């Protein structure tokens, strides 16, 4: 394939690890398999409707559940599917201002509200609709249920793939996100745990979660994402490392468009384990947005399912209780495959490379892993390596050393 006069080639050779004085990544660490897992889901979550032309398609949740069901995952992993419940108003107020919650409630009743534009509604990203309040409560509540299962010790691992809506601000909807369920879940977890690590691998910067904990040292926020130079929300640079007591507790590892598996996984390995080791979290909230995949239409990263598997394995290797959330993911076939892979990896269940026949027939998805590699121009790969190396250098020199166990 030729694009702009340059041949696109697969670039299997890791560039970062070949550089003098660089790290030697150990990427194939087996995770400590999480037993006592639960999967929070009901088909009602798939009824959230931002319109036929909106890129966020709730059917991705049903597809993921149905794919795992086709693999007999829930029985094999001894991972029961439990229903969500709507979050309470008090729980929503853990992350949002009362006047904002009132606006969302009014939109839920009437399909609109006075001055809703001030609160981020009415734009292409966040169209208002009747029932929005109730639907958003259920999304947030699914993540709260997952956090409650970990809080109580009933589960070491709790999935809420409907969650991970990390852009919502205290008084503003943003980036398809109405209520910031990761913030709510983390604040629930802080009722018991003193140190919570939030690891976000969505293609978009987890700005709403970072903002919520920017001046605190009880929450370590780590976001790996396409750089704000090229992608919404335009934030998430290495020098955004927290303020006051939170100085050093916001880790941002931005990537350039065209970043593939090797550069991404090696940069992750250079920074994230060191930060997690220094912080010693008691629980992890993992936002597993799937829009870093090379087929996703809203971002420009070039991860494949094999690189994704290595990242999830590494997060699982930290060996702490975990709340695993969804997030972005706008190419339906890759999103459901990536979330199925993540579920299997964290529970220690091996899935066949061939999609079960019944699901394959209705979805036209044949293989669990990618059937073709991404095509990355060599110049893109080299620039992506250089960009990642600069970010890693800043983080290892200036930010990670500031982290200490509380």
Protein architecture, described:
The chain is α/β, with parallel strands linked by helices. It has a single domain, classed as Arginase, Chain A (3-Layer(aba) Sandwich). Helix content is about 35%, strand content about 10%. α8 packs parallel to α9. The longest helix is centred in the C-terminal third of the chain and has 22 residues.
Topology:
Layout: E1 2-3, E2 6-9, E3 37-40, H1 59-70, H2 73-76, E4 81-82, H3 89-92, H4 98-110, H5 132-151, E5 157-160, H6 181-189, E6 196-200, H7 207-212, E7 219-226, E8 250-255, H8 261-279, E9 283-287, H9 305-316, E10 322-325, H10 332-347, H11 357-363, E11 376-377, H12 378-399
Parallel strand pairs: 3-4, 3-5, 5-10, 6-7, 6-9, 7-8, 9-10
Antiparallel strand pairs: 1-2, 2-11
Helix pairs in contact: 1-10, 5-6, 8-9, 8-12, 9-10
Flag low-confidence runs.
1-31
Task: Using the coordinates shown, work out and report the CATH topology.
Answer: Arginase, Chain A
Identify the overall geometry: globular
CATH class descriptor? Alpha Beta
Largest sheet: 8 strands, parallel
Structural class: alpha/beta
Whole-number tally of structural domains:
1
CATH architecture: 3-Layer(aba) Sandwich
Helix segment tally: 12
Strands, total number: 11
Q: Main sheet: which strands, in order across?
A: 4-3-5-10-9-6-7-8
Radius of gyration, whole Å = 20 Å
Indicate the mean pLDDT: 92
Q: Strand share of the residues?
A: 5-15%
Share in helix? 25-40%
Query: What's the helix-strand series?
Result: EEEHHEHHHEHEHEEHEHEHHEH
Rounded to the nearest angstrom, the distance between the terminal CA atoms is: 52 Å
CATH superfamily: Histone deacetylase domain
């Amino acid at each position: 394939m030729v694009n702009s006069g340059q041949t696109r080639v697969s670039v299997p050779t890791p560039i970062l690890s070949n550089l003098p004085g660089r790290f030697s990544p150990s990427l194939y660490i087996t995770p400590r398999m999480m037993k006592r897992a639960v999967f929070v889901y009901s088909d009602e979550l798939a009824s959230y409707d931002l319109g036929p032309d909106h890129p966020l398609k709730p059917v991705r949740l049903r597809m993921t559940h149905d794919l795992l069901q086709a693999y007999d995952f829930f029985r094999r992993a001894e991972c029961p599917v439990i229903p969500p419940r709507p979050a309470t108003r008090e729980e929503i107020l853990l992350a949002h201002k009362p006047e904002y919650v009132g606006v969302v409630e009014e939109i839920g009743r009437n399909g609109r509200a006075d001055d809703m534009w001030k609160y981020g509604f009415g734009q292409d990203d966040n169209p208002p609709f009747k029932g929005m309040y109730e639907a958003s409560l259920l999304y947030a509540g699914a993540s709260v249920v997952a956090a409650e299962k970990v809080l109580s010790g009933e589960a070491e691992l709790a999935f809420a793939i409907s969650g991970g809506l990390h852009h919502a601000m205290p008084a503003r909807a943003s980036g398809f996100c109405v209520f910031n369920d990761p913030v709510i879940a983390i604040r629930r977890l802080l009722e018991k745990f003193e140190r919570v690590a939030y690891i976000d691998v969505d293609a978009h910067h987890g700005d709403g979660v970072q903002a919520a904990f920017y001046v605190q040292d009880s929450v370590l926020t780590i976001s790996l994402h396409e750089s704000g130079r090229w992608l919404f929300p335009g934030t998430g640079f290495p020098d955004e490392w927290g303020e006051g007591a939170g100085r050093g507790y916001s880790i941002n590892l931005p990537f350039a468009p065209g970043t593939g598996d090797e550069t991404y996984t090696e940069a992750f390995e250079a920074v994230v384990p060191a930060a997690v080791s220094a912080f010693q979290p008691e629980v992890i909230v993992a936002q597993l947005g799937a829009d870093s995949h090379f087929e996703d239409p809203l971002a420009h990263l070039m991860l494949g399912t094999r690189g994704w598997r290595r990242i999830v394995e590494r997060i699982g290797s930290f060996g702490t209780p975990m709340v695993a959330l969804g997030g972005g993911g706008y190419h339906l076939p890759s999103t459901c495959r990536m979330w199925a892979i993540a579920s299997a990896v964290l529970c220690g269940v091996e899935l066949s490379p061939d999609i079960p026949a019944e699901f394959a027939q209705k979805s036209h998805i044949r293989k669990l892993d990618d059937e073709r590699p991404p095509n990355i121009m060599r110049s893109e790969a080299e620039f992506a390596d250089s960009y990642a190396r600069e970010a890693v250098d800043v983080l290892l020199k200036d930010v990670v050393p500031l982290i200490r166990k509380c």
